[in-house]
Amino acid sequence: MAADSASGERTVQGSAQATARLRYAVKTALALTLAYLLPMALGWPQPQTAATTVMLIAAAGAVSDSLQKGVLRIIGTVAGAVIGLSLIAMFPQERMLYLLSVSAVVSVVAYLYNAYQGDSTAFMLTAVVTLMVFNGGDADGAFLYGVDRAFMTVFGVIVYTVVASLLWPVRVADNTRAMAAELIRGFAAAFHALGQDSAGREDTDKRLAQLLTRAEDFHTHFAAVRGGSGLDDYAAEWRQVAACLEELQEDLVPALQRPSPPDTDFARYIDSYPVLLADLDARFTHAADCLQGAAYRVQAPTPVVEVRSEALADCNHRTTAEVRARADLLQRLQDNLAALQAALDSMLHDRAGFRPVREPSSRPAFIWLDLEHLKTALRAFVTFWIASAIWIQFNPPGGFMFVTFCTVLVPLVSFTPATPKLLIVLLSLGFLFAFPAYVFLLPQLTHWLQLGAFLFVYAFLGFFIFAGPVSIFFLLGLFTLGIQNSMSYHVDGLLSIMLMFYLVCATLVITMYFPFSSRPEILFDSLRRRFFRSCARTLRQSGRARRRLWERMWEHLSRGSEALLLAKLLQWGARIDPSRMGADTAQSVQALNHACELLHAQVQVVARRADEFTGNPLVAALRARAENHRLAQLCATLASRDPAQAIDAAGVGPEALEAQLDDFLGTIDPQQYEQRELGLFYVYLGLQASLLDAIMACRQAQDAMELERLAEPGF
């Protein structure tokens, strides 16, 4: 039954994804068609500029189709026009100074495009228009040429925004409710698994991976839409819902990763333990049902979590830590679910004046300290000058448009799954489709509806079959046709434009390996080392009561970089060539990525609760023995290519840490501390134990890989 249910769920999800992709292809194809036909019907010049704008917005993966996003894209377009025309006015006769200035500006904009975590197409349009307004060095009519280009770009933005807003508009509130309900049910399943014995926990790793994926999807979605019009009616309630879901994840992931020993009888040490479990199960289910529109049910009073101190008097420290950690988990779950239900009740009953008592952690608008973002900006600068040198020396077909295409496509394909082979194949497919159409089909079209049908079908195929930036290279075939009101057919002209796009593709292939390599093995090794160093740095900072000014500045600038490194690990790990690393590469990489996900979750829990533990005298005494620093040092050793040797050399293995902890526990007298302080201390010990388990899981996963082979040279 469980297998049939899972199979049915996958079928439904696959059908929903196919439907969404179909709608997306129809919307973008219609927008591109209108961006071509409307300017032609009105007699405006350069209709391909508006169509190119639609293509770039859609290929960048921008699903945001609100009017607010459209306004931001128009602002980006106007900013690009102002910057481009200002540079032309500043250097009307100094071509090299202009090229140097515009290359620096476009490189900075490319960096901002990658660093911004929202809809970054406004930055893309800024870069595009900055380059487009340059008329190949011809000062005569440069201003009007630039204004025409900027106007048609704005028109393309308006067409895309209107079509996307009116045709199958995205219902932000409904999508957010569905994702939140799915996440809550995942939390309920994780909590239910905590009460099972070891025989029922065989799929713990799979459940954890699904839980982390759902949580990341929801919080990414919420960060993107929280300022939009879909949730503004209940903005305060949704902020509290998001905050409660964050805290539920922080509570359940460590407990699920490090299950209690099967011989720990919690019912012996915690009053009404079965009743507490049943009550929390019911509250999880009720919260998910409320989000999905089920009938509201009055909840029973929340039972009190009480630990029988007399039963723990004769227990060892490990059992005491397990019981205190479980009691703390139950209490925190009760508090979080109560706050979650309060926010849901306010939405269901439309209560005015709701004041959230919890706020979600703010996600940075920009992730500044990311090496790939900087490399992409430098790659755009180098690509611009390589293309400019080709333009100056050989004057390829298309003129300066060759330089524009080479440069603006760098942020879309840099450090992405778009391989050189794939780019050439897609470009060739586009030309194989476009060339026969140019010779046999277009001369036969006599009505605008026929032309519209051709444009729609071509664009639909590109957006439906190919996802993301790679669709551009198929759609480039459409722009070789030179479609306009007065058509004159010259096969040599078509071949010249095709040559220009092949030169663009060849230039991008060169810059994929110069000055930085995009080989998956090298990138994965670099990301792996930086991820573990980032985790170690976070652990060191969380163990300090006071941080220096530069440490606080670094912490602020590096916000979000750890999660981004993890996402890139997952992306590039899946692209490692098995022929280089062995037949079992996929399984080894997947195991390491899963261990890194759990480590990241543990580190975030420790960092968020750092202030809570700082005031505890027992935690302070334990930290004085450099225990937290040793865990950070242990995490840092994972960045080496031989973690086992590095751990042994540093003398910070798990055995040494456990011996140090046992020595400390033997020196404390529980009678000298309050029960609240003892309880929080044992919770801290549980988190540290879970963190140690996560670190050792990463070590074991790395030991199963041949890490030294990741850095081997090759293409």
Describe this structure in words.
It is a single chain. With 715 residues, this protein is mostly helical. It folds into three domains: 20-169 and 369-511, no CATH class; 173-348; 520-711. Helix content is 72%, strand content 0%. The protein is built from 31 helices and no strands. The model has no long low-confidence stretch (mean pLDDT 80).
Helical residue percent band: over 70%
N-C termini distance: 48 Å
Mean of residue pLDDT? 80
Contiguous low-pLDDT stretches (5 residues minimum) are none
Q: Class by helix and strand content?
A: mainly alpha
**DSSP strand content:** under 5%
Number of structural units classed as domains: 3
β-strand number: 0
How would you describe the shape?
elongated
Largest sheet: none
> Rg to the nearest angstrom?
29 Å
Tally of separate helices: 31
Break the fold down into its secondary structure elements and pairings:
Elements (H helix, E strand, L loop, with lengths): L1 H41 L4 H13 L7 H24 L4 H21 L5 H12 L9 H25 L5 H23 L9 H22 L9 H23 L8 H4 L3 H19 L17 H4 L4 H32 L22 H24 L5 H9 L1 H4 L6 H22 L6 H18 L5 H9 L11 H21 L8 H23 L6 H9 L3 H13 L4 H4 L3 H24 L1 H5 L2 H8 L2 H10 L6 H8 L3 H12 L9 H29 L12
